[in-house]
Structure formats: structure tokens, C-alpha cells
Amino acid sequence: MKQLSKLFRRYICFCLLLPYTFVCGSKIIEKKQIVNSSESSFTIKKVKKLKNDVYVIYANRNDSIFKIVSYYNKKNKRNKKLTKGMRFEVSLQSVFGNFEREYKIIQPCNLLMEFHGVAVGKEPERGIDDIWFCEELNGPYLTK
């Protein structure tokens, strides 16, 4: 019964917030939470290509897992390509952090966003409670 209640809450939260997330995605992005990476560097765990040249980079820092989305615009191919095990330092921008605090969304809630025509969501079952952007990435390439 407890499992059913948990699934029902996720479903309701998803249904209520999905239209808002897709329609108001730009509003969410405007309210950025910046993670300063000077504390330590990130380690690449996985680089995954989705459709429409969208890449998801899974990276670890300390005990946290970060899900970073990046669009590959096919420029700057000479930059360093991200590979599993590589360490790098960048600044990340939260997609959902301030949104969840402002609207007092109960955790864990699986919010989705549309990124260049691809639906990308949090993965609370894997400990990924936010999605991050990085201006220093071009798809699977580090541009700085």
C-alpha cells in the first residue's frame, strides 16, 4: 500500500507539473542555481547520446551524481572530448533547484523538461535530483 501511495504521488506531481515545465521551461532556466566547481573537479561516469544531438553527461563530485545536458552544435570539433574517467572543472547551472524551492515541491518528484526536442528528467531512484546545464560544454566536448 505504501508503494502504491508513493507511485500515486509521483504520478499526480508529474501530471500537474508536466504542462508547466514544457510551457514555462524558459522561466525555470532564468532562475539559475550556480554550482562553483572550485571545491573539486567532476569525474565523468558516462556520456550518452540521445536524439537530436542532445548529450547527457553523468558526472560525480564528492558523493553526488550530476546529470548534465548539452547540445552539440557541430562546431569546435577540435576541443577535448569527454570520456569515461576524465576529470574536469566547470560551473554548472541548475534547472530545477530554485523552481522546486519557490513552488515548495515535495521531493522526490520526477520533473521533466524539453531540451532541443528531447524529454529529459530527473532520476530520483539513482540519486539524481536535478538536471544541470554547462556553458563550457558543446555536446560531448569541453570548450574551455
Structure description:
This protein starts with a helix and ends with a strand. It has 144 residues and is of the alpha+beta class. The chain has one domain. The strands form 3 sheets. Strands 1-7-10-4-3-2-6 form a 7-stranded mixed beta sheet, with no helix packed on it. The radius of gyration is 16 Å and the shape is globular. β2 (42-49) and β3 (54-61) form a beta hairpin. It contains 3 helices and 12 strands, in the order ααβββββββαβββββ. 24% of the residues lie in helices and 33% in strands.
Summarize the structure.
With about 140 residues, the chain is an alpha+beta fold. Helix content is about 25%, strand content about 35%. The strands form three sheets. Strands 1-7-10-4-3-2-6 form a seven-stranded mixed sheet, with no helix packed on it. It has a three-stranded antiparallel sheet with strand order 5-12-11, with no helix packed on it.
List keywords for this structure.
144 residues; seven-stranded mixed β-sheet; three-stranded antiparallel β-sheet; 24% helix; 33% strand
